[in-house]
Amino acid sequence: MINNTYIPPVVKNLLIINGIFFAAKYILSGVDLDYLLGAFYFDSPFFRVWQFLTYMFMHGNFMHILFNMFALFTFGGILESRWGVKRFINFYLITGLGAVALQMAVQAYEVHHITGAFTGAMQDISVNNGYITGRPALAHLTQDQFETLLGIYGAPMVGASGAIFGLLVAFGMLYPNAELFIMFIPVPVKAKYIIPVYILLELSMGVAKIPGDSVAHYAHLGGALLGFILVKLWKDKDNNRFYRYYE
């Protein structure tokens, strides 16, 4: 039986670090940490190389960090207890990097689709009182195209969701018959059913591009994809070392 009341060291420290970063957003009111530490498109004037790592510790609001940290505590504790410190932290960081890499690749595709190039699409990008302003390098863009470019160049991606999706996929692969209670569903559902549905929902929402949807769905999918690949590689390599809870 898995005891999830114990918080292993990496998960505990990740919870603390995320909490510190979230508190710092409001304590350091004179510094816009989202723009300093969130992940920007590589051609944006706000892009900094450290953002590949720091974006994972920033969150947009209380509900954002609450759901991510609850998932980290719930699934991360089980996986770290199974894998150990080194493998778990490698998994978490790699899936987080995979998330931002796929999101940036999709952004590059969108920029190229609109302008025919991966760089130089926007000029004079700036942020004033929370409003992003700038002008396109090309004339005669539609309003939708302009807003797409403005969002790509001027809005940061924040949150641990990519790494969290990696953890969800890993849990579903390693504990497929574990029963999970899902909001608004009155009965428990096995992980092997609910997690693939969740991934397909993210894919459909990413493709649909619903107006007003600011969620980085492809980042979630990037974390999920890297999580799937890592578990397959590790399981094939040393399958005899894995436990058999719920399998």
Describe this structure in words.
Mean pLDDT is 87; it is low at 242-247. 34% of the residues are buried. The strands form two sheets. This protein has a two-stranded antiparallel ribbon. A two-stranded antiparallel ribbon has the order 3-4. The radius of gyration is 19 Å and the shape is globular. It is mostly helical and 247 residues long. 60% of the residues lie in helices and 7% in strands. It has a single domain (9-241), classed as Rhomboid-like fold (Up-down Bundle), CATH 1.20.1540.10. It is built from nine helices and four strands. The two termini are 12 Å apart.
- At CATH level 3, the topology is Rhomboid-like fold
Number of domains: 1
The quaternary structure here is single chain
Shape: globular
Q: Tell me the strand percentage band.
A: 5-15%
- The rounded distance between the terminal residues' Cα atoms is 12 Å
Unreliable stretches covering 5 or more consecutive residues = 242-247
Range of helix content: 55-70%
What's the SSE pattern? Answer: HHHHHEEHHEEHH
Which architecture name does CATH use?
Up-down Bundle
Total DSSP E strands: 4
Mean pLDDT: 87
What is Rg? 19 Å
CATH class: Mainly Alpha
Report the major sheet.
2 strands, antiparallel
Q: Decide which structural class fits the backbone.
A: mainly alpha
What spatial order of strands do you see in the largest sheet? 1-2
